[in-house]
Amino acid sequence: MAAIDISPNKDGGVMKEIIKEGIGDEIPSPGSNVTVHYTGTLLDGTKFDSSKDRNEPFQFELKKGSVIKAWDIGVATMKKGEIALLTCAPEYAYGKNGSPPKIPPNATLKFEIEMISWKGEDLSPEKNGSIERHQIIQGKDYITPQEGALVNVHLMGMYNGKIFEDRDVQFNLGEGEDCGVIEGIEKALESFKSGEKSKLIIKSKYAFKNVGKPEFDIPPNATVEYIVELKNFEKVEVWSLKNHEQIDLAKMYKEKGTNYFKANKYSLAIKMYKKITSVLEYGEDFEGDLKIERNNLILSAHLNLALCYLKLDNNVEAKDSCNEALKLSPQNEKALFRRGQAYLALASPEIAIKDFQEVLKVEPKNTAAVKQIGICNNLIKKQLAKEKKLYANMFDKFAQEDKQKEEEKLREQPDVMCGALGEWGQEERPGGRDATAFEKENPNILMLNANGTDEFQNM
Length: 459
Fold this sequence. Notes:
Blueprint: E1 4-5, E2 14-20, E3 33-42, E4 47-50, H1 51-54, E5 58-61, H2 69-75, E6 83-88, E7 109-119, E8 121-122, E9 131-137, E10 150-159, E11 162-172, H3 183-189, E12 197-202, E13 224-234, H4 243-262, H5 266-280, H6 288-311, H7 315-328, H8 333-345, H9 349-362, H10 367-412, H11 437-441
Enzyme class: isomerase
Domain PPIase FKBP-type: 31-119, 148-234
Subcellular location: Cytoplasm, Cytoskeleton; Cytoplasm, Cytosol; Mitochondrion; Nucleus
């Protein structure tokens, strides 16, 4: 097949000749991780590089600037299994400097490239392929929506080739859960440009998890596909808002958070309360009533965050939120009480009881704190009794081990009442004499003056 000009400007900078046709109609989209084999030569046929010689296919991200321009242009046109020859002018290769020592300055290069395979762009936070994007239509501009932006999208979800949802939906990015939008779509939309249309392959972690979606006949741990089109979005630039506008925005987030909390949607409520602090965190220029209102909103956000975390049994986060609230209001009754609850859930009643006691100093009639103190005391008593029993058992065990060791030592020592030391032999009597009649009857007694002398008579 004759070479064709595929350079964007049609300046002959990248000429492509297909040596072997590929399979199907699909080509890799920008961001795809492509795998190819290649051989590079100069115009005189000198080979300067070859993945085939190394028997190591080459991988790179398409349209990310990790290879020469000619490759980003040419490989993006190739189908799976296709083999093509790219002739690349210097300005689309290594330019006037070349790549010494193998590629001279201003060199036109030839690359024979074989497209082996590709995977979609990995948009998952962990970069483990949990969210894979294949662009169908590229978006315009360069701005992408961030959390909180109002997005208008069209979704078409598929599982095993069957469409299970097909709808238009508008929501604030980060709150998709409230209208049934899975987490993987929200994560992906943060990389979409306005007008973009892409296919997403989303694994269960960011889809319907280990629960599935019975009403859609989607089993647990299923990977699903979506065609997602971002029609448009409205982005709020918080930094451009005036102080009273920031206050109004924070109030809106608080109201949303409260509604989500009442609906038992604690994760969404947490997102809203966190937004309050992010909107108002840089508030050095707030004055007068606006400053008071700002501080009250931030305090309320931390208190409500603590409550949400307690509901989700995220007790360390609850404690931390209470600490932030207490920085603003050191004797805050709710912050002390909720921190006490967090410590209690973290099996630290001896610390929790101090917070509940502080609550009573602030409000002596707080019966809930009195009840919690009782619970703390009971737990402390149980812990002490358990520790006492544990230590008693340990001491008994140690005493038994010491006794056994002592008995073993005694068994290892010779018995003075046995053997030659306890039964007098002839060799132990003075002069080696024979035993007397008395000594024979009493073998453990040695008659020292049994030789008949009178040497002890005056003793």
